[in-house]
Amino acid sequence: MDRIRLEARAKLNLSLNVLPETGEHGYYRVIFLNVQAALADSVELERLPEPGFAINAESVDGKENIALRAARLMFVEYGLPGGLAITLEKAIPTRAGLGGGSSDAAAVINGINDLFGLSLALEQRVRLAQGLGMDVCYCVVGGVCTVEGVGDVITPHPYPSPALDLLIATPPVRKPSTAWAYSVLDPSSIGRSLAKLDVLMEGIRERDPVGIAHGLHNDFQAPVERHYPVTLEIRERMRVKGALGVLLAGSGLSVFGIFESEGALRSVKEELEGEGVECSATRIAGA
Fold it and tell me: Crossing angle of helices 262-274/229-240, nearest 10°?
């Protein structure tokens, strides 16, 4: 096999809790409950006979594309022969809290594992992902998972992904960075809503959309909305139009809403798109 194509699905934090204490390297500890959306980039990997790497995507903010970094890491770690061409077809909005770059990097790790017949255990692939970022660790695993530690402890759950219709809305403005989002957190007001995680897990176990909606939480939401009120405006628009629950995606600035009514979802999608907001109607992957 010389070529492989994979889906790199958007990451959604249904519960995002940042704990006020930090670990030994100064990073906040977290407790997330993550799923993936059907919204996905396409990642194609092709083996090359000569050493070297090629990618069709530009760098982000002057930094090497994270998918290319993942490929270099795998080749160095395992002394792989030849080279690799990476072709990305982007559908996930970038720098929007949906983990698009991280999902691409995870697809490269998983794809190289298959393409070169490495037969790496899941734990080995997660270990490799640790050097690329916390979201890459989760995206290597995928599905319904609790994410803890500094994002490196991934616990898959046996429950099927909840069958939910989603609207993901991304305003044209972008936040400076994820590091910026962490910098505006108030340590006195984070990590206080862990009880909602139990509500969320019960909703997932029972496949109850209302219970899931009631359990949604994101510690970034309040501070990000203060700096970018457009995210609050989008969230309120979805809520008024009938969304069961609405939440900031990751550290933003995308917002996602859970809908039972397809008509309500389509109505708010058309309104937001008319105002220049990028929208995707999708579902939880695997549902």
Answer: 150
